[in-house]
Here is the input.
Amino acid sequence: MSEAQIAHRRLVQSLYKRSLKTAQDWYIDTNLFRRKAVELRMQFDAKSNLRHPREIAQAIQEAERQLTELRHPDPYIAVSAPGGTKFERNIHPNLDEPAAHH
Amino acid sequence: MFRAIRPAALYRSAALYKTAPAVVARNAMALNFARTYASAGLARSDVEKRVLDILAGFNKVDANKIALKANFNADLGLDSLDTVEVVMAIEEEFSIEIPDKDADEIKSAEQAVEYISKREDAH
Here is the structure.
């Protein structure tokens, strides 16, 4: 795989992951989410045979636009991730190198 | 009901507080300071089992081929989007968020286990 192909794969992977996450935000029910996930997968697979760079760019742009439009106002954030409920809670003090002013 | 507590009993309890030496209070503070938060991280065998269970849950994966060292792409026949689904399932299982940069490095169950054991916030 060339560098450009790897970059493109990463871009599509990121797009797919964000799509699934957005779907998960909107569909709490697992059964509904699975249906949506299968739908998304079909949408991505349908675009996988695009070869012309302009068509690919358009498809990606369209997907990004839809993602922005469907963004959830209160998305699920993993507890320890930035913005999560447990993010940086109970940080252990650094006893080996105390802060300079102490 | 409240009258049942005689003044003498009150005095006695007050005396108890008085006799408690200051040293005890200081020790209590030291104990408070050295508190622990939770049990130690996940056992490696548990992580391995949970990751392999996730793979077993995928209907695209042949159950006989599942192994720690099996490459998602070469051995299990998963494409790049399937790998994203595996990584998302791992994120959900261990309630962590795996950044794309790290997710890109996870190409087998063993690498996933390795990564999770490094993450202290994995549950």
User: Anything to note?
Assistant: Chain A touches chain B through 22 residues (CB under 8 Å). Chain A has a mean pLDDT of 92.
